[in-house]
Amino acid sequence: AALYCTPCEKVPGELSLRHNSIDFEPRTDAEALGRYRAEEYRIHLEVRDLLECGAVAMPIEGLASAAQFGSSTVAFFLQLHVRTLDGCRFLSRDELAAKPWRGLLRLETRGALYEA
Prior knowledge:
- This protein is mainly beta.
- It is 14% helix and 41% strand.
- A 7-stranded antiparallel β-sheet has the order 4-3-2-1-7-6-5.
- A hairpin with a 4-residue loop joins strand 1 and strand 2.
- The longest helix has 6 residues.
- The relative contact order is 0.21.
């Protein structure tokens, strides 16, 4: 399980890692569908379009949503820097250097983060 963290939503779903791609499939149950349209948050990222990947652990003690997903004291994130969002438009070298496109996924455990 994972949360796809966007500036306006935290979308629950399943993260799948393959040798040539990273996929995120949003939950489509009634509770989740009330907040977003699943197809808008579906991810299929080919590994060749991944520029950089970082594992981030952040303390979250005291936040009301801390116990909602995984650990109650630490949040585990997988941050992805990518050169394309749709396979059609690619960032130039200058654009990549200035501000690459990013994706942020919150994982339940440190083990899931290291596996990713």
